[in-house]
Amino acid sequence: MTVENIKEISKIFDNIVTSLKKNHINNPDSEAKIIISSASGKKNFNFVSESDLNIDKINSILKKRLEGKPLAKIINQKGFWNDVFYTNENTLDPRADSEILVESILDDFSFMKTKKFNFIDLCSGTGCLGLSLLGELSSSHCLFIDISPEAIKVNKINSSQLNLDKRSKFLVSNLLSDPNLNLSNIEFIVSNPPYIKSSDIKNLNSETLHDPLLSLDGGADGCDFYRSIINQLNNIEFKGYLYLEIDPIVKDKVVNLVLENNANILYIKQDYLKNDRLIKITFL
Ligand SMILES: C[S@@+](CC[C@H](N)C(=O)[O-])C[C@H]1O[C@@H](n2cnc3c(N)ncnc32)[C@H](O)[C@@H]1O
Fold first, then answer.
1. What is the pLDDT of residue 7?
2. Span 181-198, mean pLDDT?
3. CA-to-CA distance for 154 and 131, rounded, in angstroms?
4. pLDDT of 141 higher than 90
5. How far is the CA of 129 from the centre of ligand 1 (A)?
6. Is the dihedral of CA 250, 252, 253, 257 positive or negative?
7. β-bridge partners, 186
8. What is the rounded distance in angstroms from the CA atom of residue 230 to the CA atom of residue 243?
9. Of 80, 147, 229, which is best to mutate to test ligand 1, by the most ligand atoms within 8 angstroms of its C-beta?
10. pTM to 2 decimal places
């Protein structure tokens, strides 16, 4: 890239950042980089040269962004852990908060890094949790479960784009209710279920409301899914570990559900913003 090119790109970058800031959009610098690289067909902003720039496309993305649509829903992509995931109107855009689940499971299972074993990503959406784990645990296999056939389609696209399809299986199911499901050889289940109280949905910020309601609504107290998952696993005396994403608002209720089922909490961890975000449970 010549100095001239850098000047041009940096001018466009500065203009985008200014517009985003004016509209009070968080992380304007990183969003500006994503807008430029995505419009230029490059994976990384650092690889964009002036000849790649597509000003019409940049303006079209920026216009939608300034109208309030989340960037991931405009460009149908969201970075998570080591990869970029396809996302659309049928899936929750992966959130950086959820990376603590991947990090913790990798810490716990580092001794299994090359061993063959099975796990489940329950309520899988884009598949960002299970696919990130498959990418790191090189001999593992994941069963992705979601009630939405459209979400499973997105999950399959991501699995195939990341060359993980040979170690991925997919099931459209209401949680673990499929009668053919055999959990006896499952080492762990990771799940980020919907956990917003139904009555709080209307108060969510307008960007979150671009995610499907099916991925957000956790019922009257936000705990419908935790209740079902914990009860189901307790009834069958599940021998593996359950890693659940939580929110500080539902934490106490989830802890009570675990205790009511005589299950055990192994740890609760916080995300990078210091919010309680993960609870690890055993049923033994
Ligand atoms: C909060 S999103 C999580 C998506 C993804 N795991 C992530 O962390 O980004 C919850 C997902 O649960 C799915 N879901 C909702 N109800 C379900 C049910 N009864 N059984 C299985 N999946 C369900 C939704 O379709 C959605 O994809």
1. 65
2. 97
3. 12
4. yes
5. 11
6. positive
7. 118
8. 11
9. 147
10. 0.94
172 lines ligand 1 (CB under 6 A): no
Per-residue model confidence as pLDDT tens digits over 200-223: 999 999 999 999 999 999 999 999
Nearest to 10 by CA among 38, 29, 25: 29
Tell me the pLDDT band of 5, cut-offs 50, 70 and 90.
low
Does the beta carbon of 146 sit less than 6 angstroms from any atom of ligand 1? yes
Residues, the chain, total? Answer: 284
CA pair distance 34, 179, nearest whole angstrom: 44
**DSSP state string for 118-136:** EEEEES-TT-HHHHHHHHH
Of ligand 1's listed atoms, the one at least distance from the Cα of 175 is: 20
Instruction: Walk me through the domains of the chain, giving residue ranges and CATH numbers.
Output: 3-68 (no CATH), 77-282 (3.40.50.150)
User: How far does the centroid of ligand 1 lie from the alpha carbon of residue 125, in Å?
Assistant: 5
List the one residue out of 9, 8, 20 whose CA is nearest residue 62.
20
- How many CB atoms neighbour CB 276 within 10 A? 18
Output the CA torsion 21→26→29→35 (10° steps): -90
**Extended strands (E) in the chain:** 77-80, 83-86, 118-122, 141-146, 168-172, 186-191, 241-245, 264-270, 276-282
d(CA 143, CA 159): 11
pLDDT tens figures, 232-277: 999 999 999 999 999 999 999 999 999 999 999 999 999 999 999 9
What rounded mean pLDDT belongs to the chain?
Answer: 95
Greater confidence, 128 or 112? 128
Nearest Cα neighbor of 8 from 42, 65, 55, 41 is 55
Q: What share of the chain is helix, strand, coil (3-state, %, to 5)?
A: 45, 20, 35
Strand 168-172 with 141-146, pairing:
parallel
